[in-house]
Write a structure and sequence with these properties.
Oligomer: single chain
Structural class: mainly alpha
Order of helices and strands: HHHHHHHH
Strand content: under 5%
Helix content: 40-55%
């Protein structure tokens, strides 16, 4: 109702936004946590600058989300600061919200941004976002708090090995 959409369309938009809550993991400060991942990414030309302060991936999510989504979906023309508000909400999926702005070195160069954009493009295709009507501007902060809570719970469920055992190779479509 807040989004001015049919329930089915709103569900897809909310799934899309929640599905991007970990986009900040596509960053050097997160990927360097695994020596194997860091080595593999460095061998493909990804830069990991030394002496970079750690920052939670959710802060990077909040920062990169607006520009990436607006670039991926220019036809939807998110009004006002809606994209920033959504990024802030999904970036709060671990229960805290931050107004800190990560440094460029923490987020990575354009190669990292290209990976994040490619991931968003794939989710746009998978969910058929391009063909949906654009959501209306939501000024009500209660909506964004609800989105943050929903994203948090979805993250807990999606991370549960009870629901999604490690090593299972289920096609993505089974989970839609």
């Amino acid at each position: 109702e807040h989004l001015g959409l049919k329930e089915a369309d709103a569900a897809v938009w909310i799934s899309f936004w929640a599905g991007l809550h970990d986009i900040g993991k596509a960053s050097p400060v997160f990927q360097r946590k695994s020596k194997v991942a860091k080595y593999q990414l460095e061998s493909r030309g990804f830069v990991f600058e030394s002496h970079v302060t750690d920052v939670p991936h959710c802060i990077i999510t909040a920062r990169v989300f607006p520009d990436l989504v607006e670039s991926a979906l220019p036809q939807h023309n998110f009004p006002g600061d809606m994209a920033q508000s959504i990024g802030f909400a999904i970036g709060g999926h671990h229960g805290t919200f931050s107004i800190n702005d990560p440094k460029h070195r923490q987020m990575g160069d354009s190669k990292w941004n290209n990976i994040r954009a490619a991931f968003i493009d794939q989710l746009v295709i998978l969910l058929g976002i391009s063909s949906l009507p654009a959501p209306q501007y939501v000024k009500d902060n209660a909506f964004y708090v609800m989105l943050a809570g929903l994203t948090s719970v979805a993250d807990w469920i999606g991370s549960s090995e009870g629901f999604f055992p490690l090593g299972r190779a289920d096609p993505t479509e089974e989970h839609l």
